[in-house]
């Protein structure tokens, strides 16, 4: 467990009440302890495992509410199949109903499959869905908005105090999600829903809950914290949200981190080890069911209702990670397994169908230190598809893709690792796990360089005087590292990044990208290209938001994974070699470290192609990652 006990050492007054808030977030359709990409059990994920922790938490404290903070409908092949079937009760909704969820908030990924899929899935829910800033129509004020689901809800619990007297407690629950979802899923949502700033909406609906009789208010905030000052519409708004008067406890998420714990340590306003943000107890329970969040509130009576006198926040893991691997701490809950069994079987049958072959290993362990076979495969398919549509065209066709599964908060098992040989639909799901669609932009050479500068920002600036320096900046995600095939360039990590994690310029220097060429010829700033990418990028996600008024050359509805299927049917086999696009500029023996999956040790030979002079495997970290020491 991660968390702290309340500061009070004296016995609590007998007239106090105790309320326990039990919460999940960012389940991403990990209903079972199963890795659909590996077609194998996994002890690191699954609501079926979290269910055991939920039962334990409920047994310890009678007065408990169970909440979820969003991003539950998308994230595994099970979610893709459920979205396509659209018949009967959605498996996630069935599982949540079986576990007795009291209220569930919406996250941004609920909208990935479109509004029709979302509304059909939610239609089978026996519990309230809440979101006060996802709207069918904006009003003059937040309280005049027409919400997509319920804006807020009041739950009731009868709790006993120390004297055995039973008291009814009214618990207000509201939820917010990043308004950026309108950009990220613009093609499916434009003109159909509206969004309001999370902070603006919550500041109106928290007092509304109090006026309606809520004695405790719990905010489901589908966002993380940021050191940036408060701005309207900000994505990482946890600090100002937690500080809203009238909020008693917060469930956070979206960024797949953990709180309480070492994540966000040192961030102003965050007491990371205690699980407090702006003085309020907060839990952020990881990803994929890795943890259960538990907040305990001790309530003292006041003249009209109750007030929080003490609180505690903690995380409870479903497994322990270490050098020996993953050790489960709980067993599967049979009610969840039973609720999901038909959908699970249908998903496995679909994933196991053959679709082609590969003569190369498709792995993402070395995506940041060698040419990436996963990116190579995606780019080859995207460029092939785009040329078929656009030919004849005088402008060179390029393709941009990023590695999706590269460890990070999801853990050391979260990598693509496909051996040469027969490929199945399961393998394509591992190559491309998101329901994006193919898109294409017309860009100039100058815009290409900016695109690559944003990608190069995922690396730390390196100094020869620092032997223990990380290669990767933890403020960036793996999917920020777009590689554009058809070009060649160097990345000079002695220079500072030109762009920050928000994609905005943070420096005026020459940047890290050097010697940008195509077919050996320097790329002119005014040269024009067509670049294949995906709907998520076109929507402005990550670092690579297109410039205002960017010319979209292709805006169809062909799914990116379907492009891979068509390419394999045409080509039959994915072939090598994996052509290097980029390499690190020589830094005179400068050293850095990177943590990756253990499978990387079989693929280190290609690192020299990316300018890595030496790779030395070191220890397995406490989190289970393989540490590598690099010399550039």
Would you mind describing this structure in some detail?
The protein has 2 domains: 317 residues, 4-Layer Sandwich (Purple Acid Phosphatase, chain A, domain 2); 278 residues, Alpha-Beta Complex (5'-nucleotidase,  domain 2). The protein is globular, with a radius of gyration of 25 Å. Helix 3 packs antiparallel against helix 9 and helix 10 crosses helix 14. Helix content is 22%, strand content 29%. It is an alpha+beta fold and 632 residues long. The model has no long low-confidence stretch (mean pLDDT 94). Belongs to the 5'-nucleotidase family. GO terms for molecular function: 2',3'-cyclic-nucleotide 2'-phosphodiesterase activity; 3'-nucleotidase activity; metal ion binding; nucleotide binding. Pfam families: 5_nucleotid_C, Metallophos. Keywords: Hydrolase, Metal-binding, Multifunctional enzyme, Nucleotide-binding, Signal.
Structural topology:
Blueprint: E1 2-3, E2 17-24, E3 34-35, E4 40-41, H1 47-60, E5 64-68, H2 77-85, H3 91-99, E6 103-105, H4 115-122, E7 129-130, E8 134-137, E9 146-147, E10 152-160, E11 166-176, H5 181-184, H6 186-189, E12 194-195, H7 198-211, E13 216-221, H8 238-242, E14 249-252, E15 258-259, E16 270-271, E17 276-277, E18 280-285, E19 291-302, E20 305-317, E21 319-322, E22 325-328, H9 334-351, E23 354-358, E24 362-363, H10 373-390, E25 397-401, E26 417-418, E27 421-424, H11 425-431, E28 438-444, H12 445-456, E29 483-485, E30 488-491, E31 513-518, E32 521-522, E33 528-534, H13 535-538, E34 551-554, H14 560-571, E35 573-574, E36 582-584, E37 591-596, E38 614-620, E39 626-631
Parallel strand pairs: 2-5, 5-6, 6-7, 11-13, 13-14, 14-18, 23-35, 25-33, 30-36
Antiparallel strand pairs: 1-20, 2-19, 3-4, 8-9, 8-12, 10-11, 15-18, 16-17, 17-18, 19-20, 21-22, 23-27, 24-26, 25-29, 28-33, 28-34, 30-31, 31-32, 37-39, 38-39
Helix pairs in contact: 2-9, 3-9, 10-14
């Amino acid at each position: 467990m991660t968390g702290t006990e309340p500061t009070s050492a004296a016995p609590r007054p007998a007239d106090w009440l105790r309320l326990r808030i039990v919460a999940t977030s960012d389940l991403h359709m990990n209903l079972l302890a199963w890795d659909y990409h590996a077609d194998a059990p996994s002890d690191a994920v699954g609501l079926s495992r979290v269910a055991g922790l939920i039962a334990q938490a409920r047994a310890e404290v009678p007065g408990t509410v169970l909440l979820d903070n969003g991003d539950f409908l998308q994230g595994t092949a099970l979610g893709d199949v459920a979205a396509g079937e659209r018949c009967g009760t959605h498996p996630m909704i069935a599982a949540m109903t079986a576990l007795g969820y009291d209220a569930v908030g919406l996250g941004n990924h609920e909208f990935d499959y479109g509004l029709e899929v979302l509304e059909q899935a939610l239609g089978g829910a026996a519990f309230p869905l809440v979101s006060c800033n996802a709207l069918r129509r904006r009003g003059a004020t937040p309280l005049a908005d027409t919400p997509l689901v319920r804006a807020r809800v009041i739950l009731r619990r009868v709790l006993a105090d120390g004297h055995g007297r039973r008291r009814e407690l009214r618990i207000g629950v509201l939820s917010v999600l990043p308004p950026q979802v309108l950009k990220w899923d613009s093609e499916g949502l434009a003109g159909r829903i509206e969004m309001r700033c999370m902070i603006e909406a919550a500041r109106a609906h928290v007092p509304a809950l109090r006026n309606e009789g809520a004695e405790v208010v719990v905010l489901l905030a589908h966002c993380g914290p940021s050191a940036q000052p408060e701005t309207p519409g900000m994505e990482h708004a946890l600090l100002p949200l937690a500080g809203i008067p009238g909020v008693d406890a917060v469930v956070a998420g979206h960024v797949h981190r953990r709180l309480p714990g070492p994540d966000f340590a040192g961030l102003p306003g965050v007491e990371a080890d205690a699980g407090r943000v702006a003085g309020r107890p907060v839990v952020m329970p990881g990803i994929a069911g890795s943890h259960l969040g538990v907040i305990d509130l001790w309530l003292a009576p006041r003249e009209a209702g109750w007030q929080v006198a003490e609180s505690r926040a903690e995380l409870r893991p479903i497994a322990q990670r270490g050098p020996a691997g993953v050790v489960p701490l709980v067993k599967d809950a049979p009610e969840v397994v039973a609720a999901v069994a038909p959908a699970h079987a249908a998903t496995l049958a679909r994933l196991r169908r053959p679709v082609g072959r590969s003569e190369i290993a498709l792995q993402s362990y070395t995506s940041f230190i060698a040419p990436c076979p996963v990116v190579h495969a995606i780019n080859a398919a995207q460029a092939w598809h785009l040329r078929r549509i656009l030919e004849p065209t005088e402008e060179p066709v390029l393709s941009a893709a990023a590695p999706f599964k590269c460890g990070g908060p999801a853990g050391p098992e979260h990598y693509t690792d496909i051996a040469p040989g027969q490929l199945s639909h399961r393998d394509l799901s591992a190559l491309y796990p998101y329901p994006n669609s193919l898109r294409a932009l017309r860009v100039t050479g100058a815009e290409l360089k900016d695109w690559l500068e944003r990608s190069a920002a995922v690396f730390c600036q390196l100094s020869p005087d620092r032997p223990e320096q990380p290669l990767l900046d933890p403020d960036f995600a793996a999917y920020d590292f777009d590689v554009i095939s058809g070009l060649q360039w160097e990345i000079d990590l002695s220079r500072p990044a030109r762009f920050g994690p928000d994609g905005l310029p943070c420096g005026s220097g020459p940047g890290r990208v050097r010697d940008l060429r195509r077919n050996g010829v320097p790329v002119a700033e005014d040269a024009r290209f067509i670049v294949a990418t995906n709907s998520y990028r076109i929507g402005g996600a990550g670092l690579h938001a297109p410039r205002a008024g960017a010319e979209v050359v292709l805006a169809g509805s062909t799914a990116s994974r379907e492009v891979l299927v068509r390419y394999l049917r045409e080509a039959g086999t994915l072939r090598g070699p994996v052509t290097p696009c980029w390499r690190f500029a020589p830094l005179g023996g400068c050293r850095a470290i990177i943590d990756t999956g253990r499978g990387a040790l079989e693929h280190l030979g290609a690192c020299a192609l990316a300018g890595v002079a030496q790779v030395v495997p070191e220890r397995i970290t406490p989190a289970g990652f393989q540490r590598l020491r690099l010399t550039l």
